[in-house]
Each structure stands twice: as C-alpha cells, then as structure tokens.
Amino acid sequence: MRVLAQGKIEQLFDILNRSTELIQKAKDQSYLDSFIETLGFIQSDDEEDDELTEADTKKLTNIYADFNPDDFTAETFRKAIQMAVLKAIRVDTIQANYQLTPDTIANVIGYIIAGIFHDRKELSILDPAMGTANLLTAIYHQLQTSIGVTPTISGIENDDAMFELAADSVELQKIHAELFHEDTIQNVLAPVVDVVVSDLPIGYYPIDANAKGFATHSDTGHSYVHHLLIEFGMKHVLPGGFGFFLVPSQLFQTSEAKQLLKWMQGKVYLQGLLNLPKELFANAAAQKAILILQNAGDGAKQVDPVMLGEFPSFKDQQAFTKFLTEIDDWEQTDLL
Asked: Which domains does the chain have, with CATH numbers?
C-alpha cells in the first residue's frame, strides 16, 4: 500500500511540477509564484490565462487532460505540495523562514499530542506562525488516524506567498480551517484553543511599537520574535492547555531569556524540552528542540520531573522507539 501511495504522490507532483515549469518559463517568473498560479488553476474551472499564448494554454490543458482531484487523498495533496515547495526553495534560493518542518518532526509532535489528548472527542489547534500550514495539516491528519479526532484548526501567517500556499493547500485537502492573513504580533483576534503548535521563526521582530504590549519584549532594541510568539500562543491556550513549539535548543541560555522566564512564572509550566537529533541540523548552533508548555489552571501542575532529553537518531529505529516509550510513560505517570 505504501508503494502505491508513494506512486500517487509522485504522479500528482509530476502534474503540478510540469504545470509550474510551463508557467514559469512562459512568464519568466519564480518557480514559487508559478506554483501558486498552478494551485489556483487546478481549483478553477476557468482554463484561460490572458498572459499565456494559445500554444502554452493548449499545453497546460493537455497536462490536466486526465487530472481529477478526487483521485488523490488529502495526504497525497499535502505531500505533493510539500515536494513542490521544497523544489521552489531550491530553485528560487528562498530565505530560511520558508523551510518546511520535516514530517519526521511533525510526526513526533503529533505523537506527543495524541498521547496527552488520547481520550478527547474534540480538539482545537492554532499555529500562530503557520507558514505553508504543512506542520498544522500533518498533525491534523495524524490525529485523525491515531486517536480518531478531527481537530478544529486555525493558523496565522503574515507573508503573502506563504499564506496563499497555506490557503490553497488546506482547500485542496478539503480541511475546514480558519486562516488569518495578518501579523501575529499586532495581536490578531485569534481563537482560544486546546493546543498551540508552531515551528517558530527565529530572529528579531522589526517593529518595536508592536512588541511593547508583550511582557517578553526587549527593554532595549528589537525583541526576539520567537519569544513574542510563544507569549501570544500561550495567551490563546485554554487553562490547562498545551503549547508545543520548535525553538532553538539554547532558548534559555541567551541574555534575553530572562524576560521570557519572568513572564512564564505563575502563568505557564515548563513541562518538557526535547532536543531534536543533531544530524538534522547544519551545525550545533542551529539545533532545535520541542518546547512543551502548559497553561496554569484547570488542575494543571508543574510536572516532576520535567521531560528533558535528546531524541536519538531517527535512523536508529530501536533507540527511537525506546525514547517514545519513555515519553509515553512520562505522560501517563507524571504529566496527566
């Protein structure tokens, strides 16, 4: 079955890629912009494009001659779109914040969420920096499969291109989602949810005036955007709810960390910090970790012990499975 599924992913990617390359060449524009046009094209009944020649329009029509979106599952669409975005990053030499969260990491976060909320019939999730929504939708599908819950999902994204990709991806996967095309730090009126999850952009937020309303803002100069987004995220989590953030492994070892720690006191509990395998990152400074926070209230308490550790290599299946078992035991014995 896996071979067949992989074949369908490659089949769909081939259609999307050929269409994108045709538009890219015809309009002399980036692969990413051409791919966004492709996603718009396959959702529209209108096969006309005034900017394409008659010959190119005919070629495009031929590419889609046997295309039927109903032949492909939602996960197939997600993964084919993921492949196309990865190609866009390579071809267009796109900035680091466009990088997708690998499925291996999304699966780990989804696994931890499933363990905590295994007995829930309903679940709401928000990503305050959703990018192309790959992490959000990967977890959505995983929770459907693993614990039989169809989450209510919401996401916020400021970048025009990433928001378009997210909106198209969600539409093609036939997922009902509430998406906000806004700057999260301007305090979007987003829903309050059970879980916030995000692969946070790392660096400085440029508009100091917007950051002033956050307890985690820097006293001098620009503030860390990942600190601001953690605070925003946890303010949009219900009492006792959780936040799962991909953060720098050295999050609490910078001089700016004192503001973050000060804000956390009495508001959120640090329940876990799990370093991802070093092999996933170009150097030690780029290593990331899964930060697990829980809002105070609704019976939540500081767990003892805090779940600290480093995932073994994802290639070492035996050690990886053993580590997941340790997380299971920690969730059931200490956290819940």
From this structure: 2-92 (1.10.150.470), 96-335 (3.40.50.150)
